[in-house]
Please model this.
Amino acid sequence: MILYFALQRFKKIFFWSVVFFFGSFFFSSCKITSQSQYFKNLQKDTTLTGFTPNNFESKIKKGDQLSITVTSLNPAEDILFNGATISGDASKSFTAGGNTVMQDGTVLLHRLGNVTAEGFTRKEFAVKLQKDLLAFLKEPIVKVAYLNHTITILGEVGKPQVFALQQEQISLIDALVLSGDITAIGKRNDVTIIRENGSEKQVKHINLEDNSVFSSAWYYLQPNDIVLVNADTDKYIKEEKRRKLQTNLSLAASGISLLLIILSRVVK
Model:
């Protein structure tokens, strides 16, 4: 009988202990914390000026992989230009990944042979090829695209990735959206961009909580840029503590429940 009453008292103590612990955990986890936001100082119904123009055009350089597409009123000839393999050194210029700009700055094309590409923009090179092809094709149209230009997104984003940059450039915001946006513990006020400039690496820290980013020369990413979203260490530590507390409470509750079941059976 004494053991029975002791067990009942233990159950009450256990019940209120569980209520206390889980209640404390619930209210602490529901505490409202300040979240980082994009463009905190952006006023309502306003007009921003001084944008960085989206008119950057990169120059073709040695080692670039180019997709060169030719269309004209001579379909049979078009096939030769778009998929031809030429004897000799053609394998050094045309590969399954496109036309490689060789070390002398040229690409090897059907009919035209070695054509200088280095130093031209895509549009300029397309215009040059269209003029050169007039001797062989009727009303040729040439499209040139890069196959080796990429953007790398690392760190606290939903989907770290390397994606192809099909246009000349892309805004930092668009690149982050394509990568699943910044996570809850990512620092919007400290996004790092690493950019190649010849033999140098330029590093820039961007604050996306400030709308002045729109006028920054780094707002538009350039080919082969690396974007690193740093983690907020304080947020990370708090989140880890919360998870550990939740796990420990669950284990403690499970252990005590098992003990009560064993004691109940012993009393019976």
